[in-house]
């Protein structure tokens, strides 16, 4: 996509100082700018770059006063950081404006598609699928039988939403996700082998949820695995069968939540956290990165460690832990005396 400097200025309600008709086709950092790119300057420590950047245009604050000649075209706005954020949002919307059915793709004759839907090449849409208005399904995605997808949701390339799952409105499922794979259910036999326990439930993802790339959410054994409204999941997260994640809870990458655990609303869970199954974590809980949670956690707690306990206690304990070699030496010296 190409825009002129003046078109960008009109979007941002800015003033052009330079060539209004320059064409811009990409965004860049100011220190990595190149011809045809647009950058921005908001942090004063990056000011030196504006005098030698190769970017064709740079968004700056209206009160910016150069101390030496500037070769690039300037777009002057009230707040350059907010303006660039607005532009990123506009750019993303433009990229997501695709509609229509690309070929080859497969859409079962019983599937129902809403208005302004996009289905990319090599996508598969199964039997009795219901897809809402404005949904974007990118190439090589798989939508299994009896799936429902709400309005304006996005399924990125190579994601899989397997049979009977329910996806709400304005949900984002990023590339490589698997929604609704069988939960990890096996029963031991006397001879040491295992028998598969059928996983007959589904996954329900409510409105305004984001699921990061390569994350997996398993279907329930019975009932539903549920991701509540507004939850945000980072990349490479494992949510096991019958788990429930509360509203507006955010979870960082490489975290795993074992089966039938309930996580409350507005929780903040760091990266590489491990949470055992069949426990309850209350609302507004903070769990620091790489913690191991093996028991119920009360609401409004802030925990760290493995096994995890109160964050303040953990920090105080760590001071003693670091000093253990010194303490041991002092005790040994005392015993020698």
Strand and helix map with partners:
Layout: E1 3-4, H1 5-12, E2 15-17, E3 23-24, E4 26-27, E5 37-40, E6 57-61, E7 73-77, H2 80-95, E8 100-101, E9 106-107, E10 112-113, E11 118-119, E12 124-125, E13 130-131, E14 136-137, E15 142-143, E16 148-149, E17 154-155, E18 160-161, E19 166-167, E20 172-173, E21 178-181, E22 186-188, E23 194-196, E24 202-205, E25 210-211, E26 216-218, E27 224-227, E28 232-233, E29 238-239, E30 244-245, E31 250-251, E32 256-257, E33 262-263, E34 268-269, E35 274-275, E36 280-281, E37 286-287, E38 292-293, E39 302-305, E40 308-310, H3 311-322, H4 324-336
Parallel strand pairs: 4-5, 5-6, 6-7, 8-11, 9-12, 10-13, 11-14, 12-15, 13-16, 14-17, 15-18, 16-19, 17-20, 18-21, 19-24, 20-25, 21-26, 24-27, 25-28, 26-29, 27-30, 28-31, 29-32, 30-33, 31-34, 32-35, 33-36, 34-37, 35-38, 37-39
Antiparallel strand pairs: 1-3, 2-7, 22-23, 39-40
């Amino acid at each position: 996509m190409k825009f002129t400097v003046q078109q960008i200025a009109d979007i941002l309600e800015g003033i052009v100082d330079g060539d209004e008709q320059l064409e811009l086709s990409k965004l860049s950092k100011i220190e990595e700018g190149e011809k045809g790119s647009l950058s921005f300057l908001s942090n004063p420590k990056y000011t030196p770059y504006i005098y030698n950047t190769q970017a064709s245009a740079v968004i700056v604050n209206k009160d910016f006063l150069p101390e030496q000649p500037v070769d690039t075209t300037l777009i002057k706005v009230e707040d350059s950081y907010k303006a660039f954020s607005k532009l990123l949002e506009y750019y993303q919307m433009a990229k997501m404006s695709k509609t229509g059915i690309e070929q080859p793709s497969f859409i079962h004759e019983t599937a129902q598609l809403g208005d302004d839907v996009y289905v990319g090449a090599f996508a598969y849409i199964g039997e009795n699928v219901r897809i809402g208005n404005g949904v974007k399904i990118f190439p090589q995605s798989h939508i299994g039988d009896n799936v429902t997808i709400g309005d304006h949701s996005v399924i990125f390339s190579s994601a899989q939403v397997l049979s009977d799952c329910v996806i709400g409105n304005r949900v984002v499922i990023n590339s490589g996700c698997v929604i609704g794979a069988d939960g990890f259910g096996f029963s031991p036999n006397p001879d040491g082998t295992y028998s598969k326990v059928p996983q007959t439930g589904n996954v329900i993802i409510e409105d305004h949820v984001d699921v990061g790339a390569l994350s997996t959410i398993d279907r329930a054994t019975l009932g539903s695995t549920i991701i509540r409204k507004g939850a945000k999941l980072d990349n490479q997260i494992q949510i096991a069968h019958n788990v429930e994640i509360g509203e507006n809870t955010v979870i960082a990458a490489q975290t795993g939540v074992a089966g039938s655990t309930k996580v409350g609303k507005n929780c903040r869970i760091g990266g590489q956290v491990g949470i055992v199954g069949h426990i309850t974590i209350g609302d507004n809980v903070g769990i620091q990165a790489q913690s191991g949670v093996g028991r119920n956690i009360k609401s409004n707690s802030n925990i760290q460690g493995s096994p995890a306990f109160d964050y303040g206690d953990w920090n105080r304990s760590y001071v003693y832990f670091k000093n253990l070699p010194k303490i041991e030496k002092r005790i040994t010296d005392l015993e020698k005396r």
